[in-house]
Amino acid sequence: QVQLVESGGGLVQSGGSLRLSCAASGSIFRLNAMGWYRQAPGKQRELVARITTEDIKSYADSVKGRDFSISRDNAKNTVYLQMNSLKPEDTAVYYCNAEVRNPRDNYWGQGTQVTVSS
Q1: C-alpha to C-alpha distance for 105 and 103, rounded to whole angstroms
Q2: DSSP state letter for 103
Q3: Beta strand pairing status for 112-117 and 31-39?
Q4: 19, 83, 111, 112: least surrounded by Cβ within 10 Å?
């Protein structure tokens, strides 16, 4: 199994920045990719960004053109999401996701709250 622990959320003013962290442990040799999703109250969970084991990065259409960046530190088994110029509409619980193989499966962290005030 893979365990994921998110951190770095908080309350910031519009225009502020946050860096989210997701630390993976367990059967990390099974990892294919990790990503960040978010879910606001009354909304469906949506992809924000994803990074593969080959370090291929992708971003959801909703954040393209925004100053968001996903990265990873292989030595620490940690994925980051740097978010700058935050807006109130970014307010959500942000979840870390891990895609694994053999067998193919998906794991989720507990989430970290991001609140952006206007």
Answers
A1: 6
A2: T
A3: unpaired
A4: 19
Q: Which amino acid is at 109?
A: G
Q: How far is it, in rounded angstroms, from Cα 107 to Cα 117?
A: 30
Using a 10 angstrom Cβ sphere, with 0-12 exposed, 13-18 middle and 19 or more buried, the burial of residue 89 is exposed
Joined together, the tokens standing for residue 93 give: 């619980």
Give the tokens for residue 46: 């949506």
Task: Please say if the pLDDT value at position 75 is more than 90.
Answer: no
> 18-52 pLDDT, tens per residue?
999 999 999 888 999 999 999 999 999 999 999 99
Q: For the residues of 42-90, what is the DSSP string, one character each?
A: TS--EEEEEEETT--EEE-GGGTTSSEEEEEEGGGTEEEEEE-S--GGG
Mean pLDDT: which of 22-31, 73-82, 89-98 is highest? 89-98
